[in-house]
Write a structure and sequence with these properties.
0% strand; globular
Amino acid sequence: METPKTKGRLARFLERKDIEFSVQRYLIEAMSSMALGLFASLLVGTILNTIGQSLGIPFLTDVIWPFARDMTGAAIAVAVAYALKAPPFVLFSATIVGYAGNLLGGPVGAFVSTIIATELGKMVSRETKVDLIVTPTVTILSGVLVAQLIGPGIAAFMTKTGELVMVATTLQPFWMGIIVSLIIGIALTLPISSAAICMMLGLAGLAGGAATAGCSAQMIGFAVMSYRENGTGGLVAVGLGTSMLHMSNIVRNWRIWIPPTLTAAITGPIATVVMKMENIPIGSGMGTSGLVGQIGTITAMTEIGRGGAALYLNILILHFLLPATLTLIFTYILRKMGWIKDGDLKLNL
């Protein structure tokens, strides 16, 4: 049985090792960093693969793309271990854990196994005279063991969940268009990674299209409604960067979130019912950030034979013009009601 003295020693040990069991550390910091790992590997690989397919460049499709795809797990692991402030031996060893985790359990398998391996590796790091052997061994053994034990189960669960969402969206495109657009769009603005969520679920097809519509509504919505306070710099930072920049403003006045969220509820079903827009998992949760959502949309729609000028026009309307117009209308109404005031949307850029 633990005594207060024992608990005190344990708390001091965890503090010394910078191990913090919290939602902030794992679901916000680590997951956000995981998204960066995805971007630096799978996302860039997808973009280059799309360019290679469009322009007929085998080097991009046959050489770069397989490497980027296969190393996604390692990139996720490095990103997560970095976010957890892993010492060098743990960080380097995590690449093996991430590769195994992704191979056995997909992105979530890489994420979970890397977190456990990193924290255990941090516990033993620099605690022995043979750190060169002990720390990498503990990190790799624990991570790969976790990947083997829970990876297949996690992969199956996430795949089934993603399939359920996609099937439900196909069967009920109107209502699911609203739900998916709202949830993923809200996740994009919150300090968590909507891109990682979509990748974990493998959210593609019509559901992916709804997710992109919701994310675009948040980003373009916040960008245009705050233009008078933040100018062109804010317009670009939010519209092509992230609406997460407004999180502190939302905390001060939650009503500023209403216009882009109402817009997402409208553009979601338009994406699924009217335009029947689709996307691939890596682009579904990106919205207009770096135009990755649009590149993913072009990739997905071209694969089903719906490319061309009409697709580009639909993207322009659904992802940019409609969110901007609707959000400005809703914002005007809320300003008239006194729910949104001057300065509520000011960013410290």
